[in-house]
Specification:
With 236 residues, the chain is α/β, with parallel strands linked by helices. It contains eight helices and ten strands. The protein is globular. Bound molecules: adenosine-5'-triphosphate (ATP). InterPro entries: AAA+_ATPase, ABC_transporter-like_ATP-bd, ABC_Transporter_VariousFunc, P-loop_NTPase.
Length: 236
């Protein structure tokens, strides 16, 4: 069974086009979605999730239209920009009603590990705290597919490393993770496969090991240098 199937998905803005993108994700793997600023990573993730209306293409999760499978998908996309004046405790009560498999123990543990104060409102949270809250919700409803757009941005070092370990553990338990990131450390610590996006085109899908084997040269011995060379090439 394919966990996520994206078939010829396209989206155009006035000055950007996401070319037909197709790929499949398998269970229990972490996929790093990489590409320069403006390559279209967020547009792709939002189009997959139906948060922006794609121009064409199909998206299935667990072999069903994705829209019917939302309770099995956890999402972290940037900050929280709605219900800014509701306490996190109130938001949580409302949110958990949508998920039949909500695990309160897991939520409480994460809030405590992340030192999240549920009496605060989104307006009062730092960037990292907003991400931590979204992660706690995504993990608590025991999603089988996690779609994460730069979830480590804004996290402190301890939370960052903690998250990387948790992502690895979840993948080992069978959860599939699609992770857009600019951080080489995230890829080195977590990614099994890479999806390489450039100017709205999916250039490659390959394992991290394959990527390294293909891109490593005496001038680019480390993954950082390989990615730098690739992005410099993109800009040129
Ligand atoms: N709502 C929108 N209206 C018009 N153009 C948009 C909109 N959202 C994104 N774009 C454009 O689409 C392109 C891709 O943006 P996107 O945010 O998907 O890139 P990204 O790869 O996620 O970049 P970053 O690494 O900086 O987060 C950019 O040129 C951006 O300006």
């Amino acid at each position: 069974m394919s966990v996520l199937t994206v078939d010829h998905l396209t989206k155009s803005y006035s000055r950007f086009t996401l070319d037909p993108v197709s790929f499949n994700l398998e269970a229990g793997k972490i996929y790093g979605l990489i590409g320069s600023n403006g390559a279209g990573k967020s547009t792709l993730l939002k189009s997959i999730l139906g948060l922006v209306i794609a121009d064409s293409g199909e998206v299935e999760a667990f072999d069903q239209p994705l829209v019917e499978m939302k309770s099995r998908i956890g999402v972290v996309l940037g900050g929280i920009d709605t219900y800014m004046d509701k306490r996190l405790s109130t938001l949580t009560v409302v949110t958990k009603r949508f998920y039949s498999n909500w695990n309160q123990q897991r939520f409480d543990d994460l809030c405590s590990r992340f030192s999240l104060d549920l009496s605060k409102k989104p307006r009062e949270l730092s960037t990292g705290m907003k991400v931590k809250y979204q992660l706690a919700v995504a993990f608590a409803h025991q999603a089988e597919l996690l779609v994460l757009d730069e979830p480590t941005a804004g996290l402190d070092l301890v939370a960052h490393r903690d998250l990387q370990k948790q992502l690895r553990r979840l993948a080992d338990e069978g959860v599939t993770i699609l992770l857009a990131t600019h951080l080489v450390d995230d890829l080195e610590q977590c990614a099994d496969e890479l999806l390489v996006l450039s100017h709205g085109t999916l250039q490659a899908q390959m394992s991290l090991a394959e990527f390294i084997a293909t891109h490593q040269t005496p001038a680019t011995p480390t993954l950082t240098e390989m990615l730098l060379a690739m992005e410099e090439n993109d800009v040129a």
